[in-house]
TrEMBL record:
Organism: Pseudoalteromonas arctica
Residues annotated for substrate binding in this entry: Y120
Lyase in keyword set: yes
Keywords from the named record: Lyase
InterPro entries the record matches: G-Glutamylcylcotransferase (IPR017939), GGCT-like (IPR013024), GGCT-like_sf (IPR036568)
Lineage top rank: taxon: Bacteria
Any GO MF annotation of the entry: gamma-glutamylcyclotransferase activity
Transmembrane segments: none
Protein name: Gamma-glutamylcyclotransferase
Length: 164
């Protein structure tokens, strides 16, 4: 059975997601209304990862990419995202106005002070550019404060994803 995933973090990048789930199908760019993007999910690697949280701002919205997955891919993605995220059913709107019932991963372990790694934000920024989000949105991602990964091998591997 097909399921739809709304990716707003590093998996917006098709290079990143398809390296993990080669049979996933990119449906298109979508908006999650009433939420804001943060990078406060406490990852097991000690850095911040993408998260969305409800916002009181009536104009708040998060851009992301909808992918179609099969059940086996959904199971793999659940394992990749791990127990620090809850899989939540949401409604998103594709840029053509079509409503899509999807799921996304919302962090259950957060720290407002944590910073994402620079390589992680490269994935997010590349995904935002690929999704053709508004310039102000991609610029905000690009200017988010980051830190360097002390695991230089992991960092080099992650940076290389977009070199292919």
């Amino acid at each position: 059975m097909a399921v739809y995933n709304f990716s707003f973090g590093s998996n917006m990048s098709s290079s990143r997601l398809l390296a993990r789930l080669p049979n996933a199908t990119r449906i298109g760019t979508a908006i999650l209304a009433g939420y804001e993007l943060t990078f406060d999910m406490v990852s097991t690697d000690g850095s911040g990862k993408g998260n969305v949280r409800p916002s009181n701002d009536k104009n708040a919205q998060v851009y992301g990419v909808v992918y179609q997955l099969n059940d086996a891919e959904k199971t793999i993605l659940d394992a990749i995202e791990g127990p620090r995220y809850d899989c939540v059913d949401i409604q998103v709107t594709l840029l053509d106005g079509q409503q899509v019932a999807a799921h996304c991963y919302i962090a259950n372990t957060t720290d407002a002070q944590i910073l994402p790694y620079d390589w992680y934000m490269q994935h997010v920024h590349r995904g935002a550019l690929e999704a053709a989000v508004p310039n102000a949105y991609s610029d905000a991602i690009k200017s988010w404060p980051t830190c360097q990964d002390s695991d230089t091998v992991r960092a080099a591997t992650e940076f290389a994803v977009h070199q292919k």
